[in-house]
Write a structure and sequence with these properties.
With 408 residues, this protein is an alpha/beta fold. Helices cover 37% and strands 19% of the residues. It has helices spanning 37-43, 81-85, 90-95, 100-109, 112-128, 144-160, 183-201, 218-231, 247-254, 267-276, 284-289, 298-303, 324-333, 339-345, 348-353, 381-384, and strands at 22-27, 30-36, 59-62, 64-66, 131-137, 164-172, 206-211, 234-239, 258-261, 279-282, 308-310, 371-374, 391-396, 399-403, 406-407. An eight-stranded parallel sheet has the order 4-5-6-7-8-9-10-11. Helix 10 (267-276) links the parallel strand 9 (258-261) and strand 10. Helix 5 crosses helix 6 (144-160), helix 7 packs parallel to helix 8 (218-231) and helix 9 runs parallel beside helix 10. The mean pLDDT is 96.
């Protein structure tokens, strides 16, 4: 896949630049040349080749990118499965002190080492699935100390794990129980205390807000994101997941790099996002797991020129899965994307959604040598044969980090 200045939109999302009999030359952790094998060998003629890796006719793609996860958290929420099966809604579980607030209690109780060990295990699974770059949000601390603890874990993992992490501060993930009925006071805490300290310590590149009924209003979300933007953060928004709040319109108004979820977003919201170049990050495993009857209108977004990415939304409640390959299948079956559009959505468009498209997301000279070799001979086979891991080999920055489906 060749990259370009902006995310792919419209019919361009289905153009993956497939090369039959292709090859990639890697030098010093970056892509030196890409094309047919004859073309690449001609470009490296006379150079010393230290190692050759034969894909043996398998499918080779850029490293996969997960642009939306809540990677670092304590505990799990399998006890809520029975509530979901009985028809209790996500927002009702949250209102009763469960959901996000349950994970907040577990995360506050966990040590930094415990959070690190748990998140590392998830990153291992993500790497085995072909993910080479992952966004990680905070938002399960909801105090300055515990938000910083989550972000510090993400920074440590980025320094020690092959998977590259992009950190997002999401102190506005929910109103903590100690601020119940005083949401505006909590918003002020996020703006006046948390955001400046996160910025001072350089712990996050982005700020995200959960703009939803019973969580943060459009006005509160605008206030937080405007303050974050003034401090130099890139901005994101959880928008219109359950109800059409106008979060997508706010994303366009403020120029958010991405808007996430969007199940209830309107055409007016899509138009605002298109004007701003905001990437729609759709999360089909979440709507699947919440047993919703509707999913994000990805086909309509593409028709309207909105760039679409898809991601796991890995978190302990609404989407407890590290499987990007399952999400790719759901992208086809529930969002109506083609296999080519799905590949664009987990590579180049996902890279744009986290501000990394200059270095990852496509195979082209000068970019990081992040790639995956799948046990498949064509792209459609990945979402078609679902429920298994197709990864054979993963290369990150030119180094083999997964071989024969095993961590190196």
């Amino acid at each position: 896949m060749q990259g370009e200045a902006g995310p792919r939109t419209g019919s361009a999302m289905a153009q993956v630049g497939e090369i039959t009999g292709g090859a990639v030359a890697i030098a010093d952790g970056t892509v030196y040349a890409v094309g047919t094998e004859d073309e690449v060998r001609a470009q490296i003629a006379g150079m010393t080749v230290a190692q050759e890796l034969d894909a043996e006719g398998r499918l080779v793609t850029p490293g996969l990118i997960d642009a939306h996860t809540h990677l670092v958290h304590g505990g799990s929420r399998e006890h809520e499965l029975d509530l979901k099966l009985k028809g209790v809604s996500y927002l009702d579980i949250l209102a009763s002190g469960g959901g996000i607030l349950s994970t907040v209690r577990s995360t506050r109780q966990a040590t930094e080492q415990e959070l690190y060990d748990k998140a590392r295990r998830s990153l291992d699974m993500m790497l085995l699935q072909g993910m080479t770059t992952v966004e990680a949000k905070s938002g399960y601390g909801l105090t300055l100390e515990d938000e910083l603890k989550q972000l510090a874990v993400a920074r440590s993992l980025n320094e020690t794990h092959p998977v590259e992490l992009v950190s997002t501060f999401m102190g506005a993930h929910a109103v903590p129980e100690e601020y119940k009925g005083r949401a505006d006071e909590y918003v002020d805490l996020v703006i006046n205390v948390m955001l400046p300290e996160v910025k001072r310590q350089g712990l996050a590149q982005f700020c995200d807000v959960f703009c939803e009924h019973g969580v943060f209003t459009v006005a509160q979300s605008r206030k937080i994101l405007t303050a974050a933007k003034e401090l130099g953060f890139g901005i994101k928004i959880h928008a219109d997941e359950i109800e059409p709040m106008g979060g997508a319109q706010l994303a366009g108004e403020l120029g958010c790099i991405s808007a996430e979820h969007l199940l209830a977003a309107t055409d007016e919201g899509f138009a605002a996002m298109q004007q701003a170049g905001t990437v729609a990050v759709c999360l089909p495993a979440t709507s699947f797991n919440l047993r919703l009857k509707t999913h994000a209108r990805a086909r309509r977004m593409i028709e309207m020129g909105v760039p679409v990415a898809i991601s796991t939304d890995y978190n302990p409640g609404s989407s407890p899965t590290e499987s990007i390959q399952l999400v790719m299948t759901l992208g086809c079956l529930n969002l109506g994307l083609t296999p080519e559009e799905v590949m664009t959505a987990v590579t180049v468009n996902a890279a744009h959604a986290i501000g990394k498209a200059d270095v990852v997301g496509s195979l082209e000279a000068g970019k990081q040598a992040d790639l995956v070799i799948f046990n498949a001979t064509n792209l459609a086979y990945l979402p078609y044969h679902f429920g298994i891991n197709h990864v054979n080999t993963v290369v990150k920055r030119g180094l083999v980090v997964v071989a024969e489906g095993q961590l190196v």
